[in-house]
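Notes from the 1:1 (GR / supervisor)

We went over the backlog. Supervisor wanted to see one worked example end to end before approving the batch request, so GR pasted a single chain during the call. The sequence is below; no edits were made to it. Supervisor asked that the structure be written out right there so they could see what the output format looks like.
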Amino acid sequence: MKLAINYSPASAELFRQGAIQIDAFKVPDWPDLVAEASMTCAPAVHFSLQAGTGTLAQADWKLIDRLLAATATPYVNLHLEAHTQDYPGIAADTQDPRHSSLVYENLLQDIHTVTSRYGAERVIAENIPYHGLDGDHLRPCIEPEVICRLLDETGIGLLLDISHARITAHSLGFSDKEYLSQLPTWRIREMHIAGVHSMPGGELQDHLSMLDDDWSLLAWVLERIQRKEWGQPWLLAFEYGGVGSVFAWRSDPSIIAEQVPRLYAMIHPV
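Structure output shown during the call:
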């Protein structure tokens, strides 16, 4: 398993100084940024493709092909999405089987679009964070039985985002481990991790520094992978920091310098 961190000027500078050790930078599918990151460390491209939204007709497949050819990125990732705006009249917390079937079929159709181009063995699906009635996703797209059925029927892998799973578990009233254990963890091919903080309004926010609960849960996950109870991911990406207005302010060099070595030691034990 390799370790990556979101590419940012701060993480790149720390890597050049030898203050952190990583195997790759996780980079969005922006050609200029991929090229910039590759000057410092190998880039692992994270694609913005969404399954279930009807947007794949606008996907730039030639760009994806170029980025795959130019980097060592082994998978094309999809986000399993079902936005409330695309399903007027359906509540975010719906548990109606008819709604679940509709979401499932839309997700399935989009997954087939990608697997027909790249093959199921090169496609992975990421679980998204569900915020209940306060969010803009429908519950069926994060239901474990829906995700399990999709991956079983299509043969694709799982990109397990542990932080997303924590937020979803909280919204559903499950424990983190209870929700994670219901996902198709035997199909894990890649993982993401970041800190999840409770904000002043009570909502949970990810892509922040790791806290005690995050470290504890990651250790629990890695133990199951080591025991071969769960699938073996090729990469664990620490989704802290980045570029642009959304992520740049979450790129504190002191946090990166403190937490990346601890993560590296967890997945590369001496």
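Supervisor's comment: The CA atoms of residues 54 and 110 lie 7 Å apart.
Batch request approved.
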